Hints:
CATH topology of the largest domain: Four Helix Bundle (Hemerythrin (Met), subunit A)
Number of domains: 2
Strand order of the largest sheet: 1-3-2
Structural class: mainly alpha
Largest sheet: 3 strands, antiparallel
CATH architecture of the largest domain: Up-down Bundle
Strand content: under 5%
Number of strands: 3
Shape: globular
Order of helices and strands: HHHEHHEEHHHHHHH
Helix content: over 70%
CATH class of the largest domain: Mainly Alpha
Amino acid sequence: MTTTDWLEELQAERSRLGRSSTAGRVADVLRARITEGVLVPGTRLSEEDIGAALGVSRNTLREAFRLLGHERLLVHEFNRGVFVRRLTIDDVRDLYQLRRVLECGAVRRAAERFAASADASEDRFAPGFAQRWDELIQPIRAAVEDAEASAARGQWVDVGTANMRFHQAVSALAESPRLEEAMGHLLAELRLVFHVMQAPQAFHEAYLVENRAILELLTAQDFGAAESAMSTYLDTAEAQLVEAYT
């Protein structure tokens, strides 16, 4: 996608920002473009072009850049401008350490709440959780099916985006807004890591099977096996990315 293409797409976001647009909403729009793989590491972000596309002031845009800088997604280079950040091998290791805490922890917490909800005497701690299980895992199923459909069309960037949604949906099992927000920030940063893989099909294809397997384990309410599968999954992915960086 060219710079002109993604700037034209940004214009469609103007109506969503509304008259009371804030730096936070602008940051959300740009973060989404990073997570989708549109903005790659090293991309220079023009205040003039993006401000015109979104219809926001330079001050608002600079505040959005500052917010994304705190999330380690952008970096300001003196006398050069603002760029999408290039991550390091240490970033990869730290991101995967956090992923294990968030994603495996979300599955473990879901298991605890499911057991409590299934026990009528403990239902006050997780009301209706077990009864809502099919609804809770529906976003995971949708992400898996979207990834498989994109793979069938040979659209491997879209497979990567669906994979992001899969992991976001797994973290949502904890039903914690703060955890979901942290996971959203993490996944945007992680997408910057994925660009190091020069063959996206080779990288993402194997995880289609893994994602489907984890979905089936969650569907069967086999939480221990699902957590174990996720842990192994993350170990393998980290090793692949570290090797690519080195």
